[in-house]
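In the previous chapter we treated chains in isolation. Here, by contrast, the input contains two separate entities that must be folded as one system, with a combined length of 343 residues.
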Amino acid sequence: MEKKGSLDVVGIGLRAGGDVCVSAKAYIEQADTVLIVVPDSFSKNWLATLNSNVQDLTNLYQQGKSRAKTYHEMTQKIVDEVKSGQKVCAVFYGHPGVFVNASHQAIKSLKSEGFRAQMLPGISAEDWLFSDLNIDPGTHGCMSIEATQFLLYERPHDIYAYTILWQIGLIGDHTLALSKTNQYHQGLTLLKSKLLRDFPLDHELIIYEASTLSIISPRIERLSLNELTDVKLTAASTLVIPPISDAPFNLEILAALNLSKDDIKEPLKIDE
Amino acid sequence: MSDKLVEYILEINANPELLEKHMDNPAESASDYGLPAEDVELIANDDKEAIKKRLESQNYDVKGMMLALHS
C-alpha cells in the first residue's frame, strides 16, 4: 500500500507561462507544497500566481559550495516534505530530468520507501534548439553531452552526427562550484585542437542560446572552427557541431543483407 | 499580478496573437494592453537587456544553473 505523501516532478520549460503543459500546470496548482528551482524572479513570480505555498530551493546554493552537496540537500528537502504527508510538486526549469540530479534522486528514494513519485517531461533547451536551428536529430543522429565531459574523457566521437556541447561557457570547470566562470579560453583551445583531428578549419559551428522571452530572439551565431577560440560565451551558451558529411555505408553489412547503396537511397526518392 | 509589464510578457509567452501584435507594433501593443508610459517606452526602445533586467529575467547569472554530475 502506498504511503500518504506524494511527489510530482514537473518542468516548466524555458518560457514562463508558455512552455508548461496542461497537466504540469494542474499539478502545480493542486499541490500542498510547491518546491521550485527556477533561474529568475520572472519565473518565480509566475509560479507564485499558481500556488500560494511556493518554497524556493535555490536558497541552498552558496558561492564556492559544490553542486553535488547542494543537489543532495535539495533531494533531502523534497523527500522530507513528502514524508511529512504533503502532496509535493517539485518544479524545475526546462525538462525536470535533464541536467537535474535532485529530481531523479528524490524519486528513487521515495519509490524505494513506498511513496508515489513520478516525473512529467518538460520542454528542454534541446527541444528549443531543434526548433530554432531547424535540426532533426533523426537525419544524422545526435551526440548530446556536457562540454567539460566531452573534453575530459576519451570516448568515441561520431563526426557524422550532430554534436551538441552543453554549457560550453563553463568548459574545463570540473569543480562543480562554478569557480571558473568566464574562464573558458583554455578549455576552448583544447576543444579546438581536439576537433581539428577530424574537422577542417572552415567547418561551420553554431553558438546557440535559447530565448526565455517570446519577444527576444535566440542567439544563433555561426562561425568557423578556426574562430572558436575568439567567440564570446555566456553561461547559457551551447555549441552545435554539424556533421562533417553523410556517413559512409558499412559495405560488409550491405553485402550481408544483399543490398546496394542504391537500394538504401531508393525509398527516399519522391516522384512528382 | 501587480506588475503590468510582467503580466504582459507572460501573456505574450502564451498567446501567439498578442505576440504577433507586439511584433508588428510593440509600442501600440504595449499601450493597448495598459502598460504605464515608462514601460511602453522601454518596450518601444527595444533594449532587450534593459527589458530582461526590468523583468528580472536574466539567465546569464550562473547561480541557478544546473550542472551535470559525471557518472
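Chain A has two domains: 6-123, 126-241. DSSP finds ten helices and ten strands in chain A. Compare these points with the single-chain example from earlier in the chapter.
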